[in-house]
Design goal:
GO terms for molecular function: inositol monophosphate 1-phosphatase activity; metal ion binding. One of its GO terms (biological process) is signal transduction. This protein is mainly alpha-helical. It has one domain: Fructose-1,6-Bisphosphatase, subunit A, domain 1 (Fructose-1,6-Bisphosphatase, Chain A, domain 1). Helix content is 49%, strand content 9%. Strands 1-2 form a two-stranded antiparallel ribbon. Helix 2 runs antiparallel to helix 3. The radius of gyration is 16 Å and the shape is flat.
C-alpha cells in the first residue's frame, strides 16, 4: 500500500518511495508477462509434490523481479522461491513469489 500523504516521510519522498515505485513498475511488467502467458501453451513442472507447480512464466517473472531489484539495490540480497527450489544460495531479504500459479494452470 502506498504511504499516506499525511505521512511526512511520504510527502518528502521518504526512504521507501524508491522501493514503492520500483515495486509498482515491476508488478506492471510482471502482469504483462503473465497476461501474455495465459494465451500460450504452458510448460509446467513440479517441485516437491504434484501440487507444488512451477511454470516457465513463474521463472521469467521471478528473474525479472530479482534482476531489476539487484540493479536498483546492488548491496541487497534476495531469496526467491523458484531459484531457491532450484538450488540457488539464499541470503536475506525475501521476495514474494508471483501468486496464482495453481489458479492460472487450471484455466487450460
Amino acid at each position: 500500500m502506498k504511504p499516506s500523504l499525511e505521512d511526512p516521510a511520504a510527502s518528502a519522498g521518504g526512504p521507501w518511495e524508491e522501493c514503492f515505485e520500483l515495486a509498482v513498475q515491476l508488478a506492471l511488467r510482471a502482469g504483462q508477462i503473465i497476461r501474455k502467458a495465459l494465451s500460450e501453451e504452458k510448460q509446467v513442472s513440479t517441485k516437491t509434490s504434484a501440487a507444488d507447480l512451477v511454470t516457465e512464466t513463474d521463472q521469467l517473472v521471478e528473474d525479472l523481479i530479482i534482476s531489476e531489484m539487484q540493479k536498483r539495490f546492488p548491496s541487497h540480497r534476495f531469496i526467491a522461491e523458484e531459484a531457491a527450489a532450484a538450488g540457488a544460495k539464499c541470503v536475506l531479504t525475501p521476495s514474494p513469489p508471483p501468486h496464482g500459479t495453481s489458479e492460472c494452470n487450471k484455466s487450460k
